[in-house]
Amino acid sequence: MRGITKRFPGVLANDDVTFEAAAGEVHALLGENGAGKTTLSNILTGLYRQDEGDVELYGETVRFHSPRDALDAGVCMVHQHFRLVAPFTVAENVVLGDHRKEASFFLHGRSTERAVAELGERYGLDVPPRAKIWQLSVGEQQRVEILKALYREARILIMDEPTAVLTPQEAVALFATLRSMAEEGKTVIFISHKLHEVKAVADRVTVLRGGRTIETVAASGATPQSLAALMVGREIEVLRPLEEARQLADVLALEIEGVTVPGDRGEIAVRNVSFSVREGEIVGIAGVAGNGQRELAEAISGMRDIRGGTVRVGGRALRGGDPRESILAGVSHVPEDRLGTGLAPSLSVTNNVAIKTYRGRSLSHGPLLALRRMRDAALGIIRRYDVKTPTPETPVRNLSGGNLQKLVLGREFEDHPLVLVVAQPTRGLDVGAIETVHAYLRDAAASGVAILLLSEDLDEIRALADRILVMYEGEVVGELRAGHASIEEIGLLMAGGRGA
Amino acid sequence: MIRLERRLQQPWWLSVAVPVGSLAVAFAIMAVVLLASGHEVVDTYRKIVEAGFTGNGALSATLVSATPILFTGLAAAAAFRMELFNIGAEGQLYLGAIGASWIALQLGDHGAGSTPLFVVSMCAAAAVLGALWALIPGVLKAFANTNEIITSLMLNYVAGLLLTYLIYDSASYWRDTSTLQARAFPQGKPMPSAAEWPSFGSNVVVPLGFAIGVGVAVVLWFVYSRTRFGFEVSVIADSPRAARYAGMRTRRKILAVMAISGAVAGIGGASQVAEFSHTLDGSPQGLQAAAFGYTGIVVAALARYNPLAVCLVAVLIGGLLNAGFTLQGADFPSGLVGVMQGIILFCALGGELLIRYRLTLRRRSRTHVEGGTTPEAAA
Questions:
Q1: Residue A171's domain spans which residues?
Q2: 8 A C-beta contact, residue A76 and residue A107
């Protein structure tokens, strides 16, 4: 890819980016969010078209008009959110949309199953071809996505932050698969912002910053610190685990007693969980995605019914299932899904700042809105939390991930909560924004807010939490104190190994 | 090969250029149809403009045609703004007509003679019945999460049959049974003369219903843009999850919005009775054949659910409808009028697509990649 430039309204997403990956290598694309990684891969997969520059595949200039063109040329992407059909089998998902086979009309069930099994064996991607997708774990589903690409004889595979949903052990297995694909002459482009992963799997690393290529370096000669410095453009601190839990007064802000919560399909997602969070304390909940963390957070914030047990906030029991009740009790929630749950995407920054407080005296006169004061409140949060937006009237969907999160955090802090439930606060954020978000969380805890931190990033949990709870299949399977929690130990608990 | 690609950005001039362009295309297609059927193109267009807008008394007639679709357009806009697809303005309008005629007949029986009293009570009764009818799909949506498009649409047929039943198949309060002729040829009781709504103006006659409709539009615009209620509606429309997260009472909003939408459509029914038919029209070829409810959806869509824009669009569409009545005759079949109106609506709605997508032309081609290990298929 040579001299790629892509403009969006008000943003130069890619500015003369040049990127080369050789056949037979794992090439990491490293950069903060908003650095242009996603835009670049969307151009390579035909989702966007570049304004300037050329894409060359194996020496020939190509011009993709749609993702299908890119697929035909052998470029496949495994997205963060999988594109699988849950009620279909693995083999059916693998052939789905493969229009090379459409002409034959019939699905060759047996032969595809055999082909899928063979591919799986060759690359160490063990999935039963006849299993239905919904029966598989997230890690297995990811393997199906990779099988899909292999079945289509992809020559270039793009993996977008593939380890976010994996345990440390599963990530190691994935790296082995990617290496064996590279050995066969395929090209793997590995998008990530996790430095140690990049170092573990990649041959070369291209660092993007602010839409420009900064440098391509050999992974073997780089250190996490040197990569981080390239990524951010200055020296930054790599996350270091908290050495000791802080001393805190023994005032319980959040008490969870034997709580059971239903999942989306009526199954039990959280089973008989008990713990408490003190004022000013940060309690981290670790676990592989889909083990009940999201449901637990939603139960506390009222987004989900509580089927058994009690949730107490500041000593007051919640009936559950009513977000307004939780808000009034003093719970603030920074949801995992910022854009869509935490914010209404097409509405302006101003309206999103007022999304809870519009009911209050300060922003309304009876049934009428105080539009001027709503705008002032928004300007205040924009200024104090350094939210970068062209105007307060800009729809929030045009803001970058880091600014969205600053906006949500700012809004929730200004509400002066007793308990703050924060889910995946730095997912998809760049290093600079992560530092800011962590500083905000530490400040909030220092001012006495009880924080329940749900995160899939173990480094983050270890850096912030006074205590770490590990969830597996809806239950808390272990509790570790800051300074006494190794990655290996947490990883083992996350994978269901009890003990510790 | 023609392909549609989603636009990543929408330049502002598109929202002006596309409607104008759509109309130009519509008139161009119509020219072909007119030529093929042996009609004078320019002369026909001149007649349309004259009959719809510029001719003597044309604007007055246009406002008459615009009044019912103004109400149904506002009803659709009010609901669609919350992504609540109330397709039932048609039936809610019938119920409004039933309610308004009932109260007018009642007041007449009790000897009331003051027109303002008639106007207010007819609007109120029509709004209540329209709202209640709309609340049936509303309650189902709020508490059982049924699809409001289907339930509100189905209720239109129920409302239509009810209307026919009241006049044709029963000795209901609404049916006129005073004379032998009325017993043989079913018709509704005539309204008392005080129930006829007045109109204003000398050059251009504005029906009271149209004025009420404009008032309703202003109120709706204010409610949706300046109140807490309107704020909640816009959040729910954009993201129901975000609304729930923020502690908004979504169910109540569904009920309220359906009630508002039904009430507005109902007042449209009152205006039909009070200004034009002066009786409850139960004929399947009468009120029910006009399909005001469905035309209202088109009006709302063209106005992009903006209540103030609905007023303007209702007048434009009303003009077209009115021109259609004038044009049709011995040498100009009514079918051709329908074709012309269809082409205009089709182009106007089709043009909306171009605001969000762009068309690209390219040749069918293969993506050539060196090496040949990738099986290629024609794109």
A1: 2-232
A2: no
Asked if A344 and B238 count as a contact pair (C-beta separation under 8 A), the reply is yes
Asked if residue A289 and residue A180 are part of one domain, the reply reads no
Based on C-alpha coordinates, what's the Rg of chain A?
24
Q: Tell whether A252 is within 8 A of chain B (Cβ).
A: no
pLDDT of residue B8: 55
Which range of A57-61, A387-391, B265-269 scores highest in mean pLDDT? It is B265-269
pLDDT at A26: 92
Residues of chain A positioned with their CB less than 8 A from the CB of B227:
367-369
Is B367–A100 a contact, with Cβ atoms under 8 angstroms apart? no
pLDDT over threshold 70, residue A453: yes
User: The CATH number of the domain where A386 resides is what?
Assistant: 3.40.50.300
Which stretches of chain B sit within 8 Å of chain A by CB?
3, 5, 8-9, 226-231, 234-235, 238-239, 241-249, 360, 362, 367-371, 373-377, 379
Domain limits at B119? Answer: 71-304
Of A303, A346, A369, the CB nearest to B228: A369
Q: Over range A164-191, report the average pLDDT.
A: 86
Q: Do B374 and A153 touch (CB under 8 A)?
A: yes
Split into its structural domains, chain B has a count of 1
In-domain check, residue B242: yes
**β partners of residue A256:** A275, A311
Residue B363: pLDDT over 60 = no
State the DSSP code for B372: S
Check A73 against B369: CB less than 8 A apart: yes
Tens of pLDDT, residue by residue over B86-95, are: 999 999 999 9
Q: pLDDT band for position B352 (50/70/90)?
A: confident
Edge-to-edge strands of the sheet including A450-454? Answer: A331-334, A419-423, A450-454, A282-286, A467-472, A475-481
Mean pLDDT of B240-253: 95
For residue B376, list chain A residues with Cβ-Cβ distance below 8 A. Answer: 72
